[in-house]
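New to this. Explain the following:
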Amino acid sequence: MNTAKRRKLLYIPLAVIIMGLLVIPTLIVWGADFVPLTDLPDKFITNNDPGTFFNSFFRYGVIIAGFLAVIMIVIAGFEYMTTDAVSGKSDAKDRIVSALSGLFLILLSFILLSIINPDILSFSLFK
């Protein structure tokens, strides 16, 4: 196995560990009463309900992911334009396709959840 494949295989357990570190504390705190240390601006949350926090978190996550996908498309387009080698152009094409497919998956999940049941996106579990 070459080093590139080993490096890619290393990312999978690392991603699982990071996701576990992000999800487990959330699940532990999920049942506890939510008491914020300070009031957040009305721009983000209008009350101290964790449901509205998660709703805002999800919506801003979709916006940030879309922004990052557009940045990746721009970087790959610049790489495609400036590279003379065929392999560099194919790498740039792959990066553009990956960014577009990621953007498509993010937007598709948001649209499907909105179509199936708009209340899913409101995270009103604590009401």
About this structure: The two ends are 53 Å apart (CA to CA).
